């Protein structure tokens, strides 16, 4: 598709260097990578991801989502994932835009478009792929193109963003976007549980405690939480703990015992076992590898 080539040229122009590049347009991030990466662990926030060039895989639980210029990715809640750029080179780098999904913007659009669905559907997996349409691609091009004329961003970027979201509403992802926007829906109950875990991941908790925060029964929370995130609340907590410990060891030079204690582990041996199971190497070896290859640090190339 010629439009994909145009979007790739725009992302290449305005990203400049490898990595994540925030832009002057609110919620719009450009991502560039000139070589395949190792698997990267990160907490992915709600977003639309459109690849203009190259290919990437994201793993959530046992499911692999493979997307490229023909397929976009929608993420509906904050969820720990493993991402890996699998097709990129210096001459044809991986190029992607990420548009973070704001529930307030979505709610206003749904209200204006008359696209609200009064029924609260059961939550779905937080990740979903769909086919890129020409209309969606055209709106994305016009949004990124505004980076060339900063004076127009304040007036025109919200219009281009609304068009992108409007196009998504009229795809199979429409129900997912309406769930993100609903303040009283089941997905927001799961979000309340996720927010509580993110704020208190260092502390022990029971499923009943999280269920009370989410205003759900313990059994309903367990089932819906696993459907959305592909993990239980305790597994979600463990992912957050280990990712934060990794960040502390790399960024603040804490040793494994100190980092494990900081994120809530009482047993250094348990911390080392669970760290190795998630990241594939003991803490000291993994941190040494990360320091040798800074681009492998979690979250570098979402």
TrEMBL record:
Record key words, sorted: Transcription, Transcription regulation
Cross-referenced PROSITE patterns: HTH_ARAC_FAMILY_2 (PS01124)
HTH araC/xylS-type domain sequence ranges: 191-289
Gene Ontology molecular function: any one: DNA-binding transcription factor activity
Domain of life: Bacteria
PANTHER family: ARAC-FAMILY TRANSCRIPTIONAL REGULATOR (PTHR43436), TRANSCRIPTIONAL REGULATORY PROTEIN (PTHR43436:SF1)
Protein known as: AraC family transcriptional regulator
Species, as recorded: Pseudorhodoplanes sinuspersici
